[in-house]
C-alpha cells in the first residue's frame, strides 16, 4: 500500500516536471513566434469554423448549399465620382421597389439584398432580370451579378459583361469556382496592392485564393484577407441600408430679379405645394422651414418659418410664409430662392382631421394655425401661455409657456383644485413689488408666506387684500394685493384685483 | 315673402314663373323676412326681451344679467369697457362666464375654446386664473409692439373661430378698426372685450355693449352706456 503510494507520488512529481518542461518549451516557442504573429494574429483571426475544428470546412456535397442572404450588385461604369452620389441616391429609390435593403457602394455601384424579396418576385433569375430591366428602362448601362455574399456580387458585377447570361449564383459551393475566373482588378483594391500581386504573378482571383492566408495578410494587410473571407461568405459584412433623404430641399431661379417681397409669395407657392406633397407622401410633417433668398452679390437672406405644431398642410405653411414675407424688408433684389424643410417628424393621428375643412366651412382655423400666424408677425416671444408651478412664493408660482401642448392640462387641472382653498389671488401681478407710502384699508388678511430660504430668494411676508385710502373718503381706488415685509416692516404693492 | 331688400329697383318677376324653382345664375336672391331678421346686423328694438339667436353667457351677477338682453354677455359681439384705472374688478366681470363657458364646452365637445389676452397692462397671474376655474392651457397671452399690431392680432383671434373670448387693452383707436373687430367677432363667433380709457366715452362706437366702470365710495360703479336691445343706465353690482 505504502509503496504504491510512493510510486504514485513519484509518478505525479515526474508528470509535473515533464509538464513544466513542456510548458517552458511551449513558452519559448510562443515567444519566438510572437514577433512574427503579433502583427497579424490579433488583427486577423481565422473564421470560427477553422478554429474549432482545426481544419477548413469541408464542402458539403449533398446538394446545393443555400446561403441566408442573396445579394444583387449593379455597377454603373458611366457614373463618375462627383455627380454619382446624387444619381445613386435616385437609383436607390428605383431599386427600393424590389427590396427594402439597398446600400450605396461608392463610387458607382448599388447592393441589394434580394433573398427577402424572392417570395414576391419569383426565382432569383427572374428578379435579377427585372432589376436589369429597370436599369435598361432608365437607359443606364449597368453590369450586374447575384451572389450569396456582398463582395462576391460586387466583384462579379465589376468583372464586366459576362459572355453569356449575367451570373446568378445561389450555391455557396459554386461561389469560389465562379470567382476564380475574375481578374484581381475587380476587387478595386488600391494600385499598390494590385502591383504587389501582379509582381507575385497573381492576375486571377483563383490564384489569389490559393495563396496562404498568413503570408497574404502580411503582404496586403489583414483587411484584404478579411475581404476575401467576406467574398466567400465566411464572414458577415454588414452594410448600411439607404434611407431616403429626410428633408425637402428644392430651389427655383427667377428669370428676372425680384425687388418686392410681395412677388416672392407667388413664386414660393409652387415650392410650398411640392413640399406639402413631399410631406404627405411620407406621412410626415415639419415644424420648421427655411427659405433662402439668393441675391446677386450679397449673402443669401434666410427666412425662418416656425410652426406651432407639426404639420404638412399646404394652407398652414403658406399662411406662415405669407406673414413672414409681407414683413420682410429686402436688402437687395432676389435672383432665386430655395426651400429647405426642417427634420421630418411623424405626423400624429391627432393632427389629421378629415372633416376640419368641411366643419369650418373651409375658412376656419385651428388653434395652432392662429398661434403660428400671430407668431410669424409679432415674433416668437410675443405669444405665450401661462402655467402654474407648485410653489408658495407668489412670483415663482407661475411661468410663461412657449410650447403649447394640450398634455399640460392634466397637471394644471390638479393644481387648480388645490389652490381653491387659500386666499384669493389677484389677476394682475406686478413683476417687481412697488413700495407703498399712502394709507391702506386692509380688508382681508394676513396670509403669511415664508418660503424660499434654500435658493437665496427667500421671502417672509404677510399678505393682505387692501384698498387705498385717499382724501376724505374711507376706501377708494382699486382692490390691491399688498404685503408687509416681516423683517423691515415696509409695505409693498404686489398685485391688483382687476 | 319679401321680394326685395335693397334700395335698388325690383326686377319684375315673370308671371308664369314657378314659385319654388332654383334661382338661376345672375338672378337676384330672394330672401325671406325671417332670414333678414335672423341676420346679426339687423337691430330689432321692440323685440329686445326675446332671446337673441346667439347664445349668451351668464355674467354671474344677477342684477347685471337682468339688464342684459338674453340674460348674459352676448357672444359673437364686441363689448367695450371704459375705465381709467386698472383694478376695478373689470376682468372679474368676465371670468365666471369664461370659466363656465370653458367647462361647458369641454364637457360637450372635445376641446375647450381658447382665451386670448392681447396687451394686458400687467402679467396675468396664473394662480389667480386657476383659482377662478380658467383652463390655463387654453389661455394665450399676446404682447404686440404697437397698437396696430394689437388690433391686427385681435382681429385674427376673433375671426379664427377657435377663441371663446378675446380681451384687448388699448389706449386708443379709431372707429374703423372697431368696426373690423366687430365684424371679426361676428364671423368667428367670439366675444371681443375691449378695455379703453374713459376719455373715449363720447366717441361713437360700433360695440353692441358699452360699459363704464368708475370707482365709487364703497364699490365699483358700473354704468351701461349702450346696450343693444336693452336700456342703458347704472347697474348696482351686488355680490356675485
- CATH structural architecture of chain B: 3-Layer(aba) Sandwich
Count of structural domains of chain B:
1
Helix/strand structural class of chain B: alpha/beta
CATH topology annotation of chain B: Rossmann fold
**Number of helical segments with 4 or more residues of chain B:** 6
**Major β-sheet strand ordering of chain B:** 6-4-7-8-3-9-10-11
The CATH homologous superfamily of chain B corresponds to P-loop containing nucleotide triphosphate hydrolases
Low-confidence stretches of chain B: 1-10, 12-20, 48-52
Structural class of chain A: alpha+beta
Quick summary of this structure?
The complex is a heterodimer of chains A (498) and B (240). Chain A is of the alpha+beta class and 498 residues long.
Feature tags:
heterodimer, A: 498 residues, alpha+beta, Alpha-Beta Plaits, Dna Ligase, domain 1, 3 domains, 5-stranded antiparallel β-sheet, 16 helices, 16 strands, B: 240 residues, alpha/beta, Rossmann fold, 8-stranded mixed β-sheet, two-stranded antiparallel ribbon, 6 helices, 25% helix, disordered N terminus
